Amino acid sequence: MESNVGSYPSYSWKSIWCARGLLEQGIGWRVGSGHSINIWNDAWIVGQGNGRVNSVGFKTHFSKVSDLIDQDTCSWKEHIVRQLFTAKQADRILCMPLSSSASTDSLIWRCNKSGLYSIHSGYNFLINSSPELDEESDHQSANRNKSFSMPYGHLRYHPKLKPPSRDL
Predict the structure, then answer these.
(1) How many CA atoms are closer than 13 Å to the CA of 115, on its beta-carbon side?
(2) pTM for the full model?
(3) Which residues does 44 contact at the CB level (< 8 Å), separation at least 6?
(4) Cα 37 from Cα 65, distance rounded (Å)
């Protein structure tokens, strides 16, 4: 994700480069062995939120998720997890299943169950994370949509999009 747009980028590359913020917010890790996942910086906790930890006791000698896994029993080291994280996050971590085989960690799209990115899931993520949508109710949105005169007043559009000007 640390790249520049370049001097003469293609339209496709400019589009991908502009969407990297969306990708950074929605990408997370599926825990396998835990050797590739940084505990403190990466999104790896399943469920609501950004997937990153809220630390209770930051311990620098724990840096990888693999430090929280007992490799012999393929289970979480519960005493360490409960010591390092809030109760809510510790419970979420301890509920995450671990593979008994030595599977590798993999990057996934956290915004749908399949873990695969699609334009539809990216769009839904943007819509659902829009602060403007959280601040207004559906009723207010519906009234605002009705305030435009025909021929465009009957069309539904996302609040972030500007309606056509009346000069047309």
Answers:
(1) 10
(2) 0.66
(3) 28, 29, 31, 37, 51, 52, 65
(4) 6
